Fold:
Amino acid sequence: MSPYTRTAAQRAHDFANARAYEEYVAGRLGVPCHTRFDAKDDLDIWIPGYFVEIKEKNQPLTDRWHLIDGVPEENLFILDELTVRKALRWYPEVFYLLRDNASDPENPRLFLVPVWELIAVERTRVDRSTKGKWILDVTKFRRIVDEADIPAMAHSMLVGQDWKQSPCQAGEVPQV
Structure:
């Protein structure tokens, strides 16, 4: 897979859009939080007790990314492996908010993914310009209706210590 380059204007546009959504999420949470959007080595939002890392899919993926058999493009999501490594520093107190704007920009799909599910889910890993990328099937994750639901859901999962439960986190698997 040969890398492609993005122009400075494209990167600036993406950055501005991402920042606007990050600020929106911080405002929707309804609880005190500390944002770290400019940090290169930290996660996006810290709410006492856990972090929220925000990732978005803004355009349909080209054929080069269709690497999970049987999963339609609209259910594929690319995540940078480095952000997962950063998150593991705070395990289990990290939640990813995945926002799919590509399938329906007027009604984006939202997924809340605790880090313990993210690292356990089946995925495909590729290198793109020396950066590890994970290709994921978002149908394996918990869909949410509103960003304001995150604090109650995260609190419930942390108090319930869901990462210690034994059910398969990656969906249906055959019995052996």
Remarks:
- The chain has four helices and nine strands.
- The radius of gyration is 16 Å.
- The beta strands are 34-35, 45-47, 50-57, 76-80, 94-100, 109-114, 124-128, 131-137, 142-144.
